[in-house]
Amino acid sequence: MSDYRNDISEITSLRERFGESWSAINPEHAARLRAQNRFLTGLDIARYTAKIMREDMAAYDADSSQYTQSLGCWHGFVGQQKAISIKKHFGSLKGKYLYLSGWMVAALRSEFGPLPDQSMHEKTAVPALIEELYTFLKQADAWELNHYFRDLEAAREAGDEVAAKKAQSKIDNFETHVIPIIADIDAGFGNEEATYLLAKKMIEAGACAIQIENQVSDVKQCGHQDGKVTVPHASFLAKINAVRYAFLELGVDDGVIVARTDSLGAGLTQQIAVSQEPGDLGDLYNSYLDGEEITDPSEINASDVVIKQNGKLVRLKRLASGLFEFKKGTGEDRVVLDCITSLKNGADLLWIETSTPNVAHIGGMVNRIREEVPNAKLVYNNSPSFNWTLNFRQQVYDAWSKEGKDVSGYDRAQLMAAEYDGTELARVADEWTQNFQRDAARDAGVFHHLITLPTYHTTALSTDQLARNYFGDEGMLAYVRDVQRVEIRDGIATVKHQDMAGSNIGDDHKEFFSRENALKAGGAHNTMNQFG
């Protein structure tokens, strides 16, 4: 028996126990309310979605074609419509997550106004957005179930047993819109205690997976900006521990930690690592610091910082800001060390921030990591900061050149130009782009593909297109042709925006509560009826 039918039986027994004072309570109506609100707290959501992620990770380990995907969503409504769309087009949300981007929180959700991705926004905005996303996803459950319940009632009233069984089956086998969120905690917004406190708020809001990066918190930069500064491993591992303790305290025992390394593009560190003996983790970190050998102690000046590196005294290069430089060309080695260290000390998944989307480059690093940790796997940022068209056209150009194929008809530096759109090179590049996620899942250990801020761009693009035509000569035709007509013909639920916002749900609730006295909005004069 389904939960819905069990609830009807349970509430029927309750009504009988409480007698006449509960005579107005319809057990089926109460069961409907329970069905539309399956998750009572954010912790219920975090526990449920953590289990999903763990199962998906195991499925990927067995078969790399079973990778997962997400899109970054900056508002609850955006996340809701994404989930509704996936269910409509693919029938299931399996393997589909939400990503909560710190970049978009900064740019779109801060009370300071739009900010760059530098951890300057209110830390409370992050758990607030998680809670908002899940509020809208739960409302999507209520909205879809409400239609099924109405179908069931209509079928019963018509005496149509076939339609009634179909509606009942949809209710009994309903798949929730509540899906995992991978949530960006940046560099922890402070020390390890601050990280722990914020992680708790995020988990309480529903986050089952928290992504944390190895940058210095107070000078954090977007992964695709310059000036990134990393911390020694001990500092980063303390924050990983803080997140794990937060999960354990709140009973989300299988919560997922995504350890991100920015070392590939970070040339600076704020601290020299503490080393107890040659070859330990601190010594390895310090071995990548740039400097010059000193053979005479009298060469050391008062403000110099000198360490022993590979048995030699080395004066470290230090900027006026007090930051230390890493040796050029050590980024990949530092990435590999970061990743192995994180996985061996509590992280579940990796995130390597790269400058281009290149499967061979990513895979080369992952293969090195897997020499130490065979089941290492990545969350990978399919970033809008990459010029995907130019990158893949140049990758094809380079591959053809290496094969000896004639590329004289192409200007490598200008391959973004529209004049190349119809060429064979452009066609192949688009194929490589289309296959990037499956290729990276197979050859580069990518378990989860996400786009950090796609809905930032889609919002801007669709608004520009509507504004250009609506405020131009087309007027209302711009909205009717490019928005409403498409919504109607593509079956997009928001065309009935009153229903999507909950008016039908509210009407049914009013009927539960007030019965024949209910004043409902969905009558014959509701213009929503024009949409059938």
TrEMBL record:
Chain positions recorded as Mg(2+) binding sites: D184
Catalytic activity: D-threo-isocitrate = glyoxylate + succinate
Pfam families, sorted: ICL
Protein name: Isocitrate lyase
Keyword Isomerase recorded: no
Cofactor: Mg(2+)
GO biological process: carboxylic acid metabolic process
SUPFAM superfamilies associated with the record: Phosphoenolpyruvate/pyruvate domain
Keyword Magnesium: yes
GO function term, MF aspect, one: isocitrate lyase activity
Keyword field: Lyase, Magnesium, Metal-binding
Active-site annotation: C222
Residues the record lists as binding substrate: S101, G102, W103, G223, H224, R260, N381, N382, S383, P384, S385, T452
Free-text comment on the cofactor: Can also use Mn(2+) ion.
